[in-house]
Amino acid sequence: MTNKYQIVALPGEGIGEEVVPASLTILQRLAERQSFSLRIDYGLIGQPALKKLGAYFPEETAQLCQGKDGILFGAVTKGGLLELRQRFDFFANLRPVKVCPSLINKSSLKQEKAVGIDILFVRELVSGIYFGASGRTQDDTSGYHTMTYGDRDIKRIAKIALVKAQQRRGLLTVTHKENALPQIPWTRLVQEEARNFPDVTVTGMLVDNLAMQLVINPQQFDVIVAGNLFGDILSDLGGALVGSIGLLGSASLNSAGFGMYEAIHGTAPAIAGKGIAKPLGTLASIIMMLEQWGEIEAAQSLNQAQAKILERGYRTADLNPQNPEILVNTEQLVELFLQELS
Ligand code: IPM
Ligand code: MN
């Protein structure tokens, strides 16, 4: 019996409109090779949705996503994304940061510091300061956003991070700022949850120190769990560690295992519309989607195809190719994947 998957593609804006269709061309080829089938529906989010349907995240789009096997998301400048995350309670955001051997010279760190970096950021995605009470005072002279965390919200993301740590090297670092924000005791709450995971070592680390440690000694980290805002900031730092934020993908899952998959990069207006963006962040997200579906062989072959293409020296412009590396645009990169998967 062949597996059939239904996905919704939400390219959004900027390079999202280029990298999502490009990656889906590759995924289609992979599906043919691996004998599973795909149905892809395109939906609107962000500026294009506002223009055509009058809202950043229209109800039509929400309905389209309902009951599907996954959402492939591109990028938006503002509007739509937080609503989408909240609508489906995508609380668990997984952002793997793993250095690719053939791109080690693109890391912002010296090679000996970058070698072997393999970190999984587990970011809480539907609570914290992004969703706390906010507003401006009546006289319009100041504004506020509040960071609120339910103990339950911390414990449920802790559990995801603990399970992941258990499947990896058994180390979990808890990001916090308890010296200034003591009412949100991340470390204690994660430690309580960790009683059910005796094989995982839990260490609390202040977020400022953690940011420094990520640069000084990133190899010490395995899984890092963080609240919404800190996780956002630290995962960009992860991009610099491996060479480009454009390489990183993510999965955002709810408790039923339904998820949306998106590159960590934004709309990249400086390169949008030129056909030069690389779909590797979206492909990294597709690999996570395939793993989530249990299509492990397909995930591996996409991974291998990517490794081979990079090993042979093909680079998009943002990776700043140096002789003898070969500059390719989006279309050429897709073609290389199609050849590799044929
Ligand atoms: C991300 C982005 C978003 C976030 C923005 C676009 C709201 O930076 O997914 O990392 O902060 O969550
Ligand atoms: Mn971000």
What would you note in describing this structure?
It is built from twelve helices and 14 strands. The chain folds into two domains: 179 residues, Isopropylmalate Dehydrogenase (3-Layer(aba) Sandwich); 137 residues, Isopropylmalate Dehydrogenase. Helices cover 39% and strands 21% of the residues. The chain is globular. The strands form three sheets. Strands 2-1-3-12-11-4-5-10-8-9 form a ten-stranded mixed beta sheet, with helices on both faces. Strands 6-7 form a two-stranded antiparallel sheet. Helix 1 packs parallel to helix 12. The mean pLDDT is 96. The two termini are 22 Å apart. Helix 7 links the parallel strand 8 and strand 9. It has 342 residues and is of the alpha/beta class. The site of manganese (II) ion (MN) has 2 residues, from helix 9.
Provide a quick synopsis of the model.
The protein has helices spanning 16-34, 47-53, 59-65, 81-87, 111-114, 151-167, 186-193, 207-216, 228-242, 280-293, 296-311, 330-340, and strands at 4-12, 37-42, 70-75, 92-98, 118-124, 134-136, 143-145, 171-176, 201-206, 223-226, 249-253, 259-263, 314-315, 326-327.
Topology:
Elements: E1 4-12, H1 16-34, E2 37-42, H2 47-53, H3 59-65, E3 70-75, H4 81-87, E4 92-98, H5 111-114, E5 118-124, E6 134-136, E7 143-145, H6 151-167, E8 171-176, H7 186-193, E9 201-206, H8 207-216, E10 223-226, H9 228-242, E11 249-253, E12 259-263, H10 280-293, H11 296-311, E13 314-315, E14 326-327, H12 330-340
Helix pairs in contact: 1-10, 1-12, 6-7, 8-9, 10-11, 11-12
Manganese (II) ion (MN) is lined by residues 232, 236.
